[in-house]
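Researcher: Final request for today, and then I'll write up notes for the group meeting. The sequence and the SMILES for guanosine-5'-triphosphate follow.
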Amino acid sequence: MFEALSDRLDGAWKKLRGQDKISESNVQEALREVRRALLEADVNLQVVKNFVEEVREKALGADVVRGIGPDQLFIKIVHDELVRVMGETNAPLADANPSPTIILLAGLQGTGKTTAAAKLALQLRKQNRDTLLVATDIYRPAAIDQLVTLGKQIDVPVFELGTEVNPVEIARQGVAQARADQVNTVIIDTAGRLQIDPEMMAELARIKATVQPHETLLVVDAMTGQEAANLTRTFQEEIGVTGTILTKLDGDTRGGAALSVRQISGQPIKFVGVGEKVEALQPFYPDGLSDFRDGRCSHPGRKGPGGV
Ligand SMILES: Nc1nc2c(ncn2[C@@H]2O[C@H](COP(=O)(O)OP(=O)(O)OP(=O)(O)O)[C@@H](O)[C@H]2O)c(=O)[nH]1
Ligand SMILES: [Mg+2]
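Model: Predicted protein-guanosine-5'-triphosphate complex:
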């Protein structure tokens, strides 16, 4: 995901190669390259500013270690800062006791909520967790059918009450059903809107207040770029999220949304979507994200599933 970013970051290391130490003046140029690389990767401007400032302080305060050039030291500082911002390890999904674990999916239109609901159910099955999917999108005519079809495909039941019942009520009854059936996890799919819209937010807030989910996951399309930061902020302020699912990372994305979304929400990215198929969801491992491609970074970053 960050391949393009690490390519661009190469320019930053070059600024320090051959120097004998990191100084105010040479770090300035390297930082300018870092800033440019992040902006070109579509990381939000404010997030970039904070990031660069942190790296500057750490770079200037770093002790010189014999045998390690300033460029390598700088790579390590940038790497560590990326890992610090993104979190150290994978953040697992809640597993409530007593069950069911209640998961609410939220996000703008077309970001991949309905697909993610099915993908998540499939993931959970691998952990022997059975699920009930709940269809509350009564606004788009084919939305309920879409979830029902996905449910059939993966053999997971879907709770729906048609399009004439209020989404809050559908969610409430869906959770009651999961409880009665002693299902491990209930995943509530919700309607998306083109833009942040007060009605959508109010409805989501009502669903959340009613079902009291253990997880409220914001589904963000990685292609959203700069805007990802603003919408994350709004969802976080108005609804409150416990994590995000970043979708469409298989596309031509510059990956910067990951950094923005993580920083602004203050919550972990729990999964990434890497394709249209129901299998195409991976737990997100932040410590793998900044393995710089040319291998000069010695961090033993994890290249597991989702190691990007
Ligand atoms: N390439 C790719 N496509 C994806 C991914 N996730 C979802 N999609 C596609 O994105 C489109 C929208 O996905 P949906 O799951 O319907 O999105 P949604 O958020 O439920 O949309 P609304 O219900 O209209 O708000 C579909 O064509 C999906 O196949 C992904 O990770 N990669
Ligand atoms: Mg949908």
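Model: The CA atoms of residues 75 and 96 lie 40 Å apart. Residues 290-308 have pLDDT under 50 and may be disordered.
Researcher: Thanks, that's everything.
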